Fold this sequence. Notes:
single chain; 93 residues; mainly alpha; Arc Repressor Mutant, subunit A; 4% strand
Amino acid sequence: MDGIVRTDDVLGGEPRLAGRRISVRQISELAVDGGVPPAEIADQLEISHADVHRALTYYYEHPAEMQAVRDRRREAIDSLDTAAISPPESLTR
């Protein structure tokens, strides 16, 4: 989709707005999960209304990919939570 790109070394390869470090997931979480109106998202993130709608269109046109992105993020967060809660083995001796 025009205006949405993926780069392995930017945001972990998540689809994002071209030229920005704002992911489709971030926008969809605000709009879909959080109920934030698109105009407010555009204002908060300093992007155009078209960019918000472009990201949401991508989100709805690629449901399997977006679910995989969310799953990978959840796994990464869970892994970090576990690492933060468990002290390194060298400290427990």
